[in-house]
Amino acid sequence: MESTISLKTKGKGKGSKGASSSDDKSKFDFVKEWSNWSLKKAKVATHYGFIPLIIIIGMNSDPKPNLFQLLSPV
Amino acid sequence: MADLLPPLMAAQVDAKTKVDEKVDYSNLPSPVPYEELHREAFMSLKADNFEGLRFDFTKALNQKFSLSHSVMMGPTEVPSQSAETIKIPTAHYEFGANYFEPKLMLIGRVMTDGRLNARLKADLTDKLIVKANAQITNEPHLSHAMFNFDYMGSDYRAQLQLGNSALIGATYIQSVTNRLSLGGEVFWAGVPRKSGIGYAARYESDKMVATAQVASTGAVVMNYVQKISEKVSLATDFMFNYFSRDVTASVGYDYILRQARVRGKIDSNGVASALLEERLSMGLNFLLSAELDHKKKDYKFGFGLTVG
Q: How many Å lie between the alpha carbon of B190 and the closest alpha carbon of chain A?
């Protein structure tokens, strides 16, 4: 929360200098924020989905094992 | 003239002609990958000694797909400020899934506390391999990932590494003759802003391997492995850091017997360790590990069983 407050005040300060420079800065910030957001989502997706992905790919490879073999401990 | 020489002289002449045979510089073998430069030495000198109980069960569902269940119980070390090591007994269970195909390999391991360790290796083309390795935890800012792109040429290998907190590295290794390969690496880390460069050389023959590596972080590593017979090999290693002035020398052995494999080493830091892996029957392996650190008075013993 503190970091977002400081970003906003920086933006207001620079906006008074020149319109073009603030546009470039906000484009770069936009790309950075978007890449941060997508990396966070990719991290969560990998965390929950990697092992199920391996299991799905493995269960569809041939010879196809059946569900009982997946769940039984023997 | 050859039949006038006594048999011993004839054998020496034959050996000499074999060594001096013309090296075909246009057709050199592919070198060992840069990260596996010290592979033979680290097999005996950096065996994975553990403390406590270890039980691994791997269940193969078909040729390509297998599941693994691992239980580990024992004291784990916690980094502490004082000179004493603090050990906290922990127990964890790890579930893993592996998928192996000639062109794609996926390995995933998840622990009871939610940590995921994921590895991927894919052959995009004949010569280009992409590898990814990630450790993801629930705590923020403690996860990391690394991507490697390897290109294998006819007598060289090049690799590009990208890591998650702005870490970029590149390595290159080239076969110079049939036995000698030289390589270098360069890396740049964003978070502690530093960069480094290193060089490495590896000389191997049928019976021995010698490697040396220097890096601008101050680390110098040299090792030598001699294969005494099919079953026995001995290795020795010398590491020093010219900034922090730490020196470590170690000597180790690796005995590969029919039913067992014993690896041990002794160190100049006063550490003696050994690892025994014995095959009790088909698919059942028994492990015994011991590590005695006489300087810090820390003695670790471990035993385990691997099924499948």
A: 16
**B47: number of CA atoms within 13 Å, CB side?**
29
Query: How far is the C-alpha of B274 from the C-alpha of B49, rounded, in Å?
Result: 7
- pLDDT tens, residue by residue, B104-121: 999 999 999 889 999 999
Nearest CA in chain A to B164: A39
Please indicate, yes or no, whether the overall pTM of this predicted structure exceeds 0.80. no
Q: Taking the CB of residue B191, how many other CB atoms lie within 10 A of it? A: 10
Q: A43–B101: do the CB atoms touch at under 8 Å? A: no
At position B82, the amino acid (one-letter code) is: S
Give the A window 38-57 contacts with B, CB below 8 Å.
Answer: 43, 46-47, 50-51, 53-55, 57
Within the 1-30 window of chain A, which residues sit less than 8 Å (CB to CB) from chain B? none
Higher pLDDT, A5 or A50: A50
Query: What is the helix (H) or strand (E) element at residue B45, kind and residue range?
Result: helix B39-45
Least CB-CB distance to B97: which of A46, A55, A62? A55
Name the 3-class secondary structure at B153. Answer: coil
